Amino acid sequence: MNWMERDQNAIMSTYQRLPIAVEKGEGNYLYDTEGKAYLDLFTGLAVNLLGHSHPYLLKKLGEQSEKFLHISNIFLNQPAIELAERMIEQSIPGKVFFANSGAEATEAAVKLVHKWKKEQKEEKRGIVVLEKSFHGRTLGVVKLTRQPGIYQDFPAADYPVFETVPEDLEQLESVMVKEKPAAFLAEPILGSGGITPLSTDFLQGAEALCRKHNVLFCIDEIQTGIGRTGTFFAYQQAGVIPDMILFAKGIGGGLPLGGIIAGDKLKNKFAPGDHGTTFGPSPLSAALGNAVMDVLFEQNGLKEGRQRADYFRQQLEGLQLELKTEIEEIRGLGMMLGVKLDADAEKVKSIQEALLHRGFMVNIAQQTIIRLLPPLTLQKEEADSFIQAFKEELISRRQEASV
Ligand SMILES: *Cc1c(COP(=O)(O)O)cnc(C)c1O
Predict the structure, then answer these.
(1) pLDDT tens digits for 9-39?
(2) Measured from the CB, is residue 245 less than 6 Å from ligand 1?
(3) pLDDT at 169
(4) Entry's CDD domains (predicted)?
């Protein structure tokens, strides 16, 4: 049996897998067991922010692994304390709770909202989220993920969830007035919902409505955070100040790590026993988190990543202009981009497969959007080589269509 068959036999089928057995990752490339190289424009779904086998990250991982792998939350966890301080310094005054994944970050957020809610004088109930949001898949939070096929079929935790469409402040306010929610939760750029950025007007308006109606203003930066969009967190570009920030994906440098940063209203609401996790955070993950922070802030990684993202976007926009019709829209920020194609789902899938065959790994969101989550370390030549291949694939399909 080959690896694909063994996978199907032994592992539950919760993902549609590409038939590629990755042997190693180096820099911005993945290599399969045949030695074929793939430029990784997907980065393990926004995790490998600095590419693969980053020498500095590996060095820091090695140093920590020689000290201890795990100690439990009974002891002071020095790498975690240091990382929390640094994340607070780069965002809002407050305190951090560390977990091991994005969904666990949302779980902690929901429990914290619940603790806050019980202390309000007025009645408060539930959480408002946006249509096509994604906030995790565990039973406690799956209802917050408003995508067909994800949340409807399972028994979920019993708290009200209210859905509103993005960009509609009137609708948001009427939900706040009518339902008296405790919190508003949104991704600054809806990720799996289609790389849809929320406008600054909407984010600022939502923040103002939250203040007016005593609703917690919570931002899910699990995908957008840690420099991916050009600033440490994406909300920072809209000039808003959240009461709570959810993070995961990029911060662990490839290891599982997630959590929340809770501002002044929330930071002291958990008491011992209210919440916890054995592993969160693994000292290894926290040490890698500190290494990621070093690269971003002490080794110029954030600034250079932003410049590389600007270059990549310019090239994509150039391609859009040159082709005129194939690319309907390019959206997103920094190294989180969606290229909406004027093509049906089948054609977009065939483009993804052709690109993969040529050694470029891209993802698809909402069927017709090529989702690009390149590493902040993407080099000019790498961006250029992708643009060239993408252009050729789009043009070759144009010729097919006109024959
Ligand atoms: C990926 C993601 C999650 C869930 O994270 P997991 O680590 O997969 O549980 C939640 N919210 C957003 C915005 C995400 O992109």
Answers:
(1) 999 999 988 889 999 999 999 999 999 999 9
(2) no
(3) 98
(4) OAT_like (cd00610)
Residue 45 CA: nearest ligand 1 atom is: 1
- Statement: 68-299 belongs to CATH 3.40.640.10: yes
Nearest-atom index, ligand 1, CA of 248: 7
394 three-state secondary structure: helix
326 C-alpha to ligand 1 centroid (Å): 30
Side chain identity at residue 330, one-letter code? I
Q: What is the pLDDT of residues 128-160, one digit of tens each?
A: 999 999 999 999 999 999 998 888 888 888 899
CA-nearest residue, atom 7 of ligand 1: 102
- Picking from 320, 365, 317, 375, the residue whose alpha carbon sits closest to that of residue 345 is 365
Stretch 44-61: mean pLDDT: 98
Counting from 1 in the atom list of ligand 1, the atom nearest the Cα of 137 is 9
CA of 102 to the centre of ligand 1 (A): 4
For strands 183-186 and 95-99, give the pairing: unpaired
What are the residue ranges spanned by the domains of the chain? 3-54+302-401, 68-299
Tell me, using a 6 A CB cutoff, whether residue 188 lines ligand 1.
Answer: no
Mention every residue, 6+ apart, whose C-beta is less than 8 A from residue 271: none
What is the average pLDDT value for the chain, to the nearest integer?
96
CATH number for 3-54+302-401 (one of 3.90.1150.10, 3.30.470.20, 1.10.760.10, 3.40.930.10): it is: 3.90.1150.10
CA 191 – ligand 1 centroid, Å: 9
Indicate which atom in ligand 1 lies nearest the CA of residue 224: 13
Mutational test site, ligand 1, from 249, 257, 363, 366, max ligand atoms within 8 Å of CB: 249
One-letter-per-residue 3-state SS of 83-102:
HHHHHHHCCCCCEEEEECCH
